[in-house]
C-alpha cells in the first residue's frame, strides 16, 4: 500500500451505520466494514458489507470508550478472507471528537497486527484499517499495511440521495455552496464520465468542462456525420467530411478553453471491457445514450462501482391529423437519478427485457428486425437531421442540475422526492417522482472487479 485510497459506501449503508453508531444513549458503538478493492482501476475501497456489533454484546459502552467481543471480528475475518476483502473497523465518537484518540491508537496497535497475523492467503493490497464516525455521520479513516505503515484515507464518499464527500483534511466542514467558488473548487477534484457524446452528451460534456470538473472521460464509438452537425457542440463541416471520431471532436473543443483538465477519450461502445473500466474511474456517470443496451451497462456500472448515475432521454411523439398529415403530440424529456441500493433503471422500466431483445435482434438479424421501425427522436415521423438541440439542451441542463442538487444541496425539499423529472413542453407541465413510486429489486451493489465484469460473460477476461 503506497498510495492514498478513498472509501466509498452507499447512502443506504451510511444511514444504517449512522443510526447504529450514534444511538440516542450517547455512548460509543462499533461496526465492521467489508471492503472490495478496485485497484488498479482506481485506488478505492467499496464497502460491500456492513456487520453491526450489537450494543448488548459489548462488555462496556461509554461516551468515550467501548469494548466489544472478538468473535464478531473473527467471523468477519473468515468472511473477508474467502472473498479477498479488506476489513475496516469503525466506531463512534458521539461527543464529536473528530480525530483518532490515543485510546484509538493503542487499540489499533493491538488489533490490526492480529488481523494480519490471523490472515490466511494473500494479504489485501489495500491492507486493513479503522475509522471513526462523529455527528451527524461524518467519517474519517486510515489504513495499515502488514508492516504497520499508516496511510490516512483520502476521502470518504457517500453515494445516496445526497452525495457526501468527507475530505481527510477537514472531515467535518460543511458542503460547499451550490454555484459558488467552493463548488468550483470541489468539482476540480471530481471525475465525470459522459457515455454518448452526441445530442445530449456533447452538451453535458460542455457543461462539465466549463463548470470545472477536474477530469472527464468521454465514451462513444461513433463518428461525426453531416446529419448530426446540428446537435453536436464543437463539431464542424470538416469533422463530418473526414468522419472524425465524436469523442475526439468534443475533447478538442474542450481543450480550446480548458488547459487544466484531464481528458480521456474512449472511442468504444460502452458494451466493451475497455469502456467499462474507463467509466469505473468516475465520480459520476452521465448516461446520454439512446439504446437500452447502453443504459443497461450504465445501470450495472453504477451499482457495481458505487457511482451515482444521471440518465436522460428526450422524445417527440406525433399524431395523425384529420387531414392525414402529421403533428406534434408532445415534446418530452426525462431525467433519472440512480444511486446504489435504490431503484435501478431496470426497476423504473427505462429499459425492459423486450427492448433489450429488440436491440439484440436488430444487431444480429437486421432482416428479421426490419418490420420494427427505429424512429429515433420523432416517433411517427422519422427525420434524418431533426432540429432538437433546444430540447437536448433543456434535458442536459436539467440532468446537470440534478447532479448539482445531490452534491451541493440547494432544494427546499428532500432530494428523495426527485428520483425522476419529467417535462412535457406542449402541455407546459413538469412532474417529479419520488423513489417510493418504483419497485426496488434490491439489486446487489459493490461487485467491483468481480469476474465476469458486471456479471456479463461478454465482458469477462
Could you describe the 3D structure shown?
Keywords: Hydrolase, Metal-binding, Metalloprotease, Nucleotidyltransferase, Protease, Transferase, Zinc. This is ThiF family adenylyltransferase. Residues 178-315 form the THIF-type NAD/FAD binding fold domain. Residues 18-111 form the JAB domain. The protein has 2 domains: 6-167, Cytidine Deaminase, domain 2 (3-Layer(aba) Sandwich); 181-459, 3-Layer(aba) Sandwich (Rossmann fold), CATH 3.40.50.720. The protein is 28% helix and 25% strand. The strands form 3 sheets. Strands 12, 13, 14, 15, 16, 17, 18, 19, 20 and 21 form a 10-stranded mixed β-sheet that branches. A 9-stranded mixed β-sheet has the order 9-8-7-6-2-3-1-10-11. It has a two-stranded antiparallel sheet with strand order 4-5. Helix 3 links the parallel strand 6 and strand 7 (128-134). It has 12 helices and 21 strands. The protein has helices at 11-21, 70-83, 102-117, 181-187, 201-211, 237-241, 246-255, 273-279, 292-304, 353-364, 366-369, 389-407, and strands spanning 6-10, 30-37, 44-53, 60-62, 65-67, 86-92, 128-134, 138-144, 150-152, 155-159, 163-167, 191-195, 215-219, 262-266, 284-287, 309-320, 326-328, 332-338, 378-379, 420-424, 429-433. The protein is α/β, with parallel strands linked by helices and 461 residues long.
Amino acid at each position: 500500500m503506497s498510495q492514498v485510497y478513498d472509501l466509498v459506501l452507499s447512502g443506504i449503508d451510511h444511514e444504517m451505520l449512522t443510526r447504529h453508531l450514534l444511538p440516542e444513549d450517547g455512548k460509543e458503538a462499533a461496526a465492521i466494514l467489508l471492503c472490495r478493492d478496485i485497484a488498479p482501476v482506481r485506488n478505492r475501497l467499496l464497502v460491500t458489507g456492513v456487520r453491526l456489533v450489537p450494543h448488548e454484546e459489548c462488555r462496556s459502552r461509554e461516551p468515550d470508550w467501548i469494548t466489544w467481543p472478538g468473535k464478531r471480528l473473527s467471523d468477519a475475518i473468515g468472511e473477508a478472507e474467502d472473498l479477498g476483502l479488506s476489513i475496516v473497523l469503525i466506531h463512534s465518537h458521539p461527543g464529536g471528537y473528530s480525530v483518532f484518540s490515543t485510546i484509538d491508537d493503542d487499540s489499533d496497535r493491538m488489533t490490526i497486527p492480529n488481523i494480519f497475523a490471523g490472515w490466511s492467503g494473500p494479504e489485501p493490497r489495500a491492507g486493513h484499517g479503522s475509522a471513526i464516525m462523529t455527528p451527524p455521520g461524518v467519517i474519517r479513516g486510515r489504513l495499515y499495511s502488514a508492516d504497520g505503515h499508516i496511510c490516512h484515507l483520502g476521502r470518504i464518499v457517500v453515494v445516496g440521495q445526497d452525495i457526501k464527500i468527507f475530505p481527510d483534511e477537514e472531515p467535518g466542514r460543511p458542503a460547499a455552496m451550490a454555484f459558488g467558488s467552493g463548488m468550483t473548487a470541489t468539482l476540480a477534484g471530481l471525475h465525470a464520465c459522459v457515455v454518448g457524446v452526441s445530442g445530449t452528451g456533447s452538451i453535458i460534456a460542455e457543461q462539465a468542462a466549463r463548470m470545472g470538473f477536474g477530469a472527464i472521460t468521454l465514451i462513444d464509438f461513433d463518428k461525426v456525420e453531416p446529419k448530426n452537425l446540428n446537435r453536436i457542440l464543437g463539431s464542424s463541416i470538416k469533422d463530418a467530411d473526414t468522419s472524425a471520431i465524436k469523442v475526439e471532436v468534443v475533447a478538442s473543443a474542450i481543450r480550446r478553453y480548458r488547459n487544466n483538465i484531464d481528458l480521456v477519450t474512449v472511442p468504444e461502445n460502452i458494451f466493451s471491457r475497455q469502456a467499462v473500466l474507463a467509466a469505473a474511474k468516475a465520480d459520476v456517470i452521465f448516461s446520454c445514450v439512446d439504446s437500452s443496451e447502453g443504459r443497461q451497462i450504465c445501470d450495472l456500472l453504477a451499482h457495481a462501482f458505487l457511482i451515482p448515475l444521471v440518465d436522460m432521454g428526450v422524445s417527440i411523439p406525433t399524431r395523425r391529423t384529420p387531414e392525414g398529415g402529421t403533428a406534434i403530440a408532445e415534446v418530452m424529456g426525462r431525467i433519472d437519478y440512480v444511486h446504489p441500493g435504490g431503484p435501478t433503471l431496470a426497476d423504473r422500466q427505462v429499459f425492459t427485457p423486450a427492448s433489450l431483445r429488440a436491440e439484440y435482434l436488430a444487431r444480429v438479424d437486421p432482416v428479421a428486425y426490419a418490420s420494427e421501425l427505429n424512429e429515433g427522436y420523432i416517433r411517427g415521423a422519422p427525420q434524418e437531421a431533426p432540429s432538437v438541440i433546444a430540447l437536448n439542451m433543456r434535458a442536459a441542463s436539467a440532468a446537470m442540475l440534478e447532479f448539482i442538487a445531490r452534491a451541493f444541496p440547494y432544494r427546499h425539499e428532500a432530494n428523495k422526492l426527485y428520483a425522476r423529472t419529467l417535462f412535457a413542453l406542449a402541455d407546459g407541465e413538469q412532474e417529479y417522482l419520488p423513489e417510493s413510486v418504483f419497485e426496488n429489486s434490491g439489486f446487489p451493489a459493490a461487485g467491483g472487479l468481480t469476474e465476469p465484469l458486471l456479471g456479463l460473460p461478454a465482458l469477462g477476461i
